[in-house]
Design goal:
Helices cover 47% and strands 17% of the residues. It has 245 residues and is α/β, with parallel strands linked by helices. Strands 1-4-3-2 form a 4-stranded mixed β-sheet, covered by helices on one side. A 4-stranded mixed β-sheet has the order 5-8-7-6, covered by helices on one side. A hairpin with a 2-residue loop joins β3 and β4. α4 runs parallel beside α6, α6 packs antiparallel against α7 and α6 packs parallel to α9.
């Protein structure tokens, strides 16, 4: 079967989206300014087309595309490298931005990109589903253990903050989850705290984000835990460097 579907997404100006998608590794395959602004991008098997509309407001965009890829982790790393090179840091708030993968257990996590036109690229693994991802999230521990319960809290928060763009709801989910499970170890709390700091940064609450990062720095983690949580610790450090910059 050789069927293909190519989304056509809005933007205010072609020059708003062209540099951004080139940073992500896309190539421009066609561009015109008249009779109407139109541009085509391609990256591997992904084709995206855009039309320009001067009156368009990216903040009001409802454009959304699901990208199914073999390895979401590899694609995130490639996108992130380009964005860091272009912006000096990973843009995680405002427009444009990228969300970090959250799911760790048993499946490769998905992530989202919001482009300068306010359009969402929702990246998921081929064959993945929300139900399967939820089930795999508890693979490291029963839902009756603190680790399993906090995994579920993180999934619910990411669904609100990343998939639905409701940072305030995600913050409430995390804060309530941490309060319900005071018996959790510092290692179990760390992923939620790092995500909480990121959510505060997205909402412009820099002081709250820094306070959470101070809490992260004060956690007691042994060498093994630091190795397992190396990615989360690196994310926390990158957040702090972004504030200092």
């Amino acid at each position: 079967m050789n069927e293909r579907a190519i989304p056509i997404l809005p933007c205010r100006r072609l020059d708003d989206v062209a540099p951004f998608y080139e940073v992500l590794g896309f190539q421009v395959t066609y561009r015109q300014e008249r009779p109407n602004p139109y541009i085509c991008f391609k990256r591997g098997g992904i084709d995206l087309h855009f039309f320009g509309l001067e009156s368009f407001e990216p903040e009001n965009s409802m454009g959304s595309v699901i990208l199914l890829v073999p390895d979401t982790g590899l694609l995130f790393d490639e996108f992130a490298a380009g964005l860091r090179a272009a912006y000096g840091k990973l843009p995680i708030s405002g427009i444009p931005r990228i969300t970090r993968p959250r799911r760790k257990q048993g499946t490769t996590a998905g992530f989202s990109v919001v482009d300068p036109g306010g359009n969402w690229l929702r990246v998921s693994a081929l064959g993945d589903s929300e139900d399967a991802s939820d089930a795999s999230a508890g693979a490291s521990g029963s839902a009756s253990t603190p680790a399993g319960r906090l995994d579920r809290v993180l999934l619910n928060a990411a669904r609100q903050g990343d998939a639905r763009g409701s940072e305030a709801t995600a913050i409430s989910v995390i804060e309530a989850g941490l309060q319900r499970h005071p018996e959790a170890t510092d290692a179990e709390k760390l992923p939620l705290l790092v995500y909480l700091a990121e959510l505060h940064e997205r909402t412009g609450s820099r002081a709250l984000a820094l306070a959470v990062l101070d809490t992260v720095d004060a956690l007691e983690l042994d060498a093994e835990a630091r190795q397992v949580l190396a990615t989360e610790l690196a994310n926390a450090e990158e957040l702090r460097r972004g504030f200092e910059g």
